[in-house]
Write a structure and sequence with these properties.
about 350 residues, alpha/beta
Length: about 350
C-alpha cells in the first residue's frame, strides 16, 4: 500500500526512482481532499436555517473602500477650504464702504412787489400766466432720449433717468407730500447713505444749508394753504453725464406752478398761483441703478410769492391772494460762520404773476 504521498493507483511502472519526491509536492492526501469538499445544505435545511441558496459574493476589498473614503474626505476638505477662503478673503465679500455725498441746499424766497393777484377760478389764473403752455403733472417731466456713455449702457442711462423722474414727481407732485402729511414716497427713493440726513431734515429742519426739508421736496405749510386745483403745471428738462467712471450725474431743472387757497377757505374763495423752480443734481452709482434709488447732492430752490422773513426750511409758506410781502428781510448772514449759508431773498418779477 502506498504512502500518504503516493498517487491513488500506486507508483507508475517504469517511473524514475525519484518520482515519489516529484509527486509529493502536487498530490494531496485524502484528509486534505475530504476537508476541501463542499457540502450543500438540503432544501429542508435551508428553510430551517433561513440560509441563502447561493453563496454571497465577497465584499469589496477593504483596501479599495479605504481609498474611496480617503478620496471623498480630501474632496470635502478642499471644497470646505475654498468656501472658507471665499467668505473670508479680503477681496471677496468684505463690504466696501461707499462714499455718499451729503446734500447741499439753498432755498431762495421770491417776494412780490405788490399784492398777490387772485381769482375764484384757478384755470383763469393759469391761462393768464407764463404757465399757460406748461404740461400737467408728470407730463411736464419728460424723459430725454437715452444714449450710452463711456462706462454705462443705454439701459443703465435710462434706469438713471427714470429713477430721477420718479423722485421729482413724488417730491413735487404727490398730494400727500405737498400737504406735509407724508414723506415716505420720497424717502423710499433716497440712497441709504443719505437717510440719516433726510430724516434729520424732516424731524429737525434748519436753514443751515444741509437740513432744509424743502430742499428734498416741496412742502406747503398745511396750516396756511391747500391746493385749489390738483392739475399742477410743470415744465423742465433732464440731462445726464458721467461724474466719473463709476457714477452717472443727472441734472434736473423744473418749474412747478400750484393754484392755492387759504386753508379752511370756501371753494369759491380767491385762489392764487405759487411757483417753485427746482434745480437739482443727482448722482447714481451702480448700486443705485440696481436699487433704483438716487443721491441728491445739490438742491437750489426758488419759490414765490414768499415773504423774505419767513423760515422756509421746514415748509414753504406762500403769500396768498391779496397779501403783500411787507418790509421783512431775511436774517443776517455771519461771514465768519462757514457752516451757515448766505441768507438770500429775491424779488418776484411782475411778469411772473398772472395778469388781472
Amino acid at each position: 500500500m502506498g504512502g500518504p504521498g503516493d498517487p491513488p493507483e500506486g507508483t507508475p511502472e517504469g517511473g524514475p526512482g525519484g518520482a515519489e519526491d516529484e509527486y509529493r509536492s502536487v498530490v494531496f492526501d485524502e484528509s486534505f481532499v475530504r476537508a476541501a469538499r463542499l457540502q450543500e445544505s438540503s432544501a429542508a435545511e435551508r428553510m430551517a436555517d433561513h440560509a441563502p441558496a447561493v453563496r454571497r459574493r465577497p465584499a469589496l476589498r477593504r483596501g479599495l473602500t479605504r481609498q474611496v473614503l480617503i478620496l471623498a474626505l480630501l474632496i470635502a476638505v478642499a471644497f470646505g477650504t475654498a468656501l472658507y477662503m471665499g467668505v473670508r478673503h479680503p477681496y471677496g465679500s468684505t463690504p466696501v464702504r461707499r462714499s455718499v455725498e451729503a446734500l447741499r441746499t439753498t432755498v431762495v424766497p421770491l417776494a412780490p412787489q405788490g399784492r398777490v393777484p387772485g381769482a375764484a377760478d384757478p384755470e383763469r389764473l393759469f391761462t393768464h400766466s407764463p404757465a399757460a403752455p406748461f404740461d400737467i403733472g408728470a407730463e411736464g417731466v419728460p424723459l430725454p432720449a437715452s444714449r450710452r456713455t463711456a462706462h454705462f449702457s443705454d439701459s443703465q442711462v435710462m434706469t438713471a433717468l427714470t429713477a430721477v423722474k420718479d423722485y421729482i414727481v413724488r417730491s413735487s407732485l404727490h398730494p400727500e407730500v405737498l400737504a406735509g402729511r407724508e414723506v415716505r414716497p420720497v424717502r423710499s427713493l433716497v440712497d441709504s447713505g443719505q437717510l440719516d440726513q433726510f430724516d434729520r431734515s424732516v424731524t429737525h429742519p434748519a436753514a443751515d444749508g444741509r437740513h432744509a426739508s424743502t430742499g428734498w421736496m416741496v412742502r406747503i405749510d398745511p396750516a396756511r394753504a391747500r391746493l385749489a386745483d390738483d392739475r399742477i403745471r410743470a415744465f423742465g428738462s433732464l440731462h445726464v453725464t458721467e461724474a466719473d467712471a463709476a457714477t452717472l450725474e443727472v441734472s434736473a431743472d423744473h418749474t412747478f406752478v400750484y393754484a392755492l387757497r387759504p386753508t379752511g377757505a370756501a371753494s369759491h374763495a380767491p385762489a392764487s398761483l405759487f411757483t417753485v423752480r427746482r434745480e437739482l443734481t443727482f448722482h447714481l452709482d451702480r448700486d443705485d441703478l440696481r436699487t433704483r434709488q438716487v443721491q441728491l447732492t445739490t438742491s437750489y430752490v426758488q419759490a414765490g410769492p414768499l415773504a423774505c422773513a419767513e423760515d422756509a426750511s421746514a415748509y414753504l409758506r406762500p403769500l396768498l391772494a391779496g397779501q403783500t410781502a411787507g418790509t421783512g428781510r431775511p436774517a443776517g448772514t455771519n461771514p465768519y460762520d462757514t457752516d451757515s449759508p448766505a441768507s438770500v431773498c429775491g424779488t418776484l418779477a411782475t411778469g411772473a404773476q398772472p395778469r388781472a
